[in-house]
Amino acid sequence: MYKIISNKKISENSYEMIINAPLVIEKCIPGQFVIVMGKEDSERIPLTIYDYNKDRGELSLIYQVVGASTEELSTIKDKLYSVAGPLGNPNEICLNTEDFKDKRICYVAGGVGIAPVYPQVKYLNEKGLNVDVIYGARSANLLLIRDKIEKVAHKIRYATDDGSFGTKGFVTDILEKNINDYDIVVAIGPVIMMKNVAELTKKYNIKTIVSMNPLMVDGSGMCGACRCEVDGKPKFACIHGPEFDGHKINFDLALKRMNIYKEEEKEKWNQMKKTLGGLENE
Ligand code: NAD
Ligand code: FES
User: pTM of whole model > 0.90?
Assistant: First the structure.
């Protein structure tokens, strides 16, 4: 069991959870993730390590309520049943900062994708690398942790779909206008955003790293749930990723696989809402 220090709403549909998990974060490097289970019979949910304080042994996670499992997570206030990690490979730039010192790097974050982007930009800033960020959300109120990302980014540009903050449009619009300023792009967010970023950077031959966030079960390469196709070969995001060369990912397959359990997930969420509604009315 892992003690929850706080689990609070930070936007319309996103939460920040801080957990006491010193052994999990002892050796973590940005890019890695954990798999949490709210209760003994809960589904396993993969979440990026968004922030950590190694002195205090605190791990911070950001999650979006998108279905029954994340809805359940938002209601748990005292203890988490399990936290497995750190899992996956660290980000290539964070792992080899010396090799990237002279590169012009831009992070592109879409929506909750800011959660994996933040620790990487913070880490690189601490190592003396100037990294720019383009951050987009549907609306101003869905832009998360602006105060934190602004402290560590060299230059930050915002886009909102409705124009309520920053440039009106998608992150790709800002990237396209500034594409010649960069040697490397790291894109993290919705699969469709990463696909469009990768298609754009491919035209300019700019190295692009993306972080895949498929459904996961065991997190150890055994179940096959997180299979992606990279350069025509099957890879598992949990052990070979989660980050891959954006020009080699089969995004169309990733988009298709994302929707495999959509109907079952919807049904489970509806049932859960009915149960919660029933409890509230008792
Ligand atoms: P969203 O759908 O609101 O999109 C956020 C931003 O992404 C948009 O404002 C826009 O700037 C950009 N975007 C969206 N569609 C685009 C398109 N077609 N072309 C170019 N840019 C586009 O995002 P959300 O509701 O916050 O959802 C976040 C998504 O990120 C979820 O699907 C979640 O699974 C995913 N996610 C991924 C990771 C990861 O590691 N890859 C981590 C956390 C979240
Ligand atoms: Fe099972 Fe990756 S989650 S193989």
Answer: yes
